[in-house]
């Protein structure tokens, strides 16, 4: 039963693809101008770079605080032993 349902589903998908290929594509496709596409791509790259910079800054600040905290504890331990 499951094989028949899968075969029917695949046949329907193929039928829809054949119908879509035969239709006039300009009716259903939205045309994007090259300037708009360039703006979208540049905006995406800019946002990605911004996210990378913010994550790097936050990670470096956290690591710096951790190293400073370790130094304080090491000095306290050294002072307590003397």
Any descriptors?
82 residues; 0% strand; phosphatidylinositol 3-kinase binding; Hematopoietic cell signal transducer; disulfide bond; signaling receptor binding
In words, what does this structure look like?
One of its GO terms (biological process) is regulation of immune response. This is Hematopoietic cell signal transducer. Its main location: membrane. The chain starts with a helix and ends with a helix. The chain is built from three helices and no strands. Helices cover 89% and strands 0% of the residues. It has 82 residues and is mostly helical.
Furnish the topology, listing elements before pairings.
Blueprint: H1 2-22, H2 25-28, H3 34-81
Signal peptide: 1-20
InterPro entries: HCST
Main location: membrane
